[in-house]
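ok, trying the design again with the full structure, not the truncated one.
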C-alpha cells in the first residue's frame, strides 16, 4: 500500500507492507489524504493505535480519502492490514 500526504497522490509518499500504529511517529506524516492499495485489504483509523472511526479499503486507487469517508473522519493516523485467519 502506498500512502500520500496530500490528495491526488501528492506530497510525501511512503510504502507500507505491514501495520502502522502511528503515522506521525513512523513517517513524520500528520495525515494521509490519498492512497493506492496494491494488494490486500486494510483499515485506516482516525487515531493512533488503531482507535476511533475507521475506513475499509480494498485494492484500488483512492484519490481523496476525505471525500470517500464523507467528512466523518478528521484525519487518518494509523493503518492495519486485514489478514486471513485461515
Amino acid at each position: 500500500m502506498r500512502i500520500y500526504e496530500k490528495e491526488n497522490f501528492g506530497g510525501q509518499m511512503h510504502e507500507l507492507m505491514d501495520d502502522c500504529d502511528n503515522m506521525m511517529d513512523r513517517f513524520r506524516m500528520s495525515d494521509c489524504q490519498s492512497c493506492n492499495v496494491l494488494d490486500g485489504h486494510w483499515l485506516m483509523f482516525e487515531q493512533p493505535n488503531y482507535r476511533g472511526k475507521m475506513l475499509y479499503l480494498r485494492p484500488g486507487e483512492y484519490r481523496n480519502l476525505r471525500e470517500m469517508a464523507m467528512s466523518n473522519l478528521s484525519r487518518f493516523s494509523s493503518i492495519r492490514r486485514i489478514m486471513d485467519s485461515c
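Keeping the full-length input from now on. The beta strands are 2-6, 10-15, 34-37, 41-47, 51-57, 60-62, 78-82.
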